[in-house]
User: Fold Ribonuclease P protein subunit p29 from Pygoscelis papua.
Amino acid sequence: PQGSEEAKAFVNAFLKRSMPKMKDEAIQDILTRKAVVLEHYSKKKTKQKRKKTKGFTAKQRREMHLFEIEPEQQRYTIFLPLHELWKQYIRDLCHGLKPDVQPHMVQGKLLKADLHGAIVTVTKSKCPSYVGITGIILQEFKHVFKIITKEDKLKVVPKLNNVFSLEIDGFISYIYGSKFQLRASERSAKKFKLKGTIDL
Assistant:
C-alpha cells in the first residue's frame, strides 16, 4: 500500500494474523518500540520409519541350499589356499607367533579367532569313530564343524563330547567342543574363563 493510512491498516491486519493470541493494546505497545517478534507455528514433520530389510528365514536358507557345498567342490586341494590364508591371519593376530610368546595369550586369541581354514584333528571323543578325523574346517556352526579330509570326504563332526587339536608353527592348541558351542560371531564377543573344570 502506498498511502500511510493504508500501510498502517495493512500492518495492523498483518500483525493480528501473525500474533493471534495478543490483544490490540499489546500490539500497539510493541509497535511504539519498533521491535516486533512474530510468532511462527511450524508444522511438526512426521519422521518416516525406515523399513528393515528382512533376511531369509532358516527354512528358506535350507530350501535354497545356501550353506551346502557342491559335491564337485568337495576336494581337499581346493581349500589348501584357504588354509594358507588362515595361517597368515593367525600370525598377524598373534603378532608373529614368536618363540618367546606367552602360550595363554595365543590360546586366548585362538578362542576368539575365525577357524574357517584351520586344520584340526579330533584327538578325544566319546564316540570312537570320530577320533583321528583330520581336515580343514570349511564351515563352523553352533553345534558342528564341517571338515574336508585329505580323502576328499566332507565330515560333519559335532562339537559336543569332542576334543580338537589345532597346530600352527609348532604351537598346539586344544579345543574342548563342549565349551565351544557358539556361533563364530558370538564367540568373538564372549569372555572365556581361563580356569575351570574341563571335560568331554
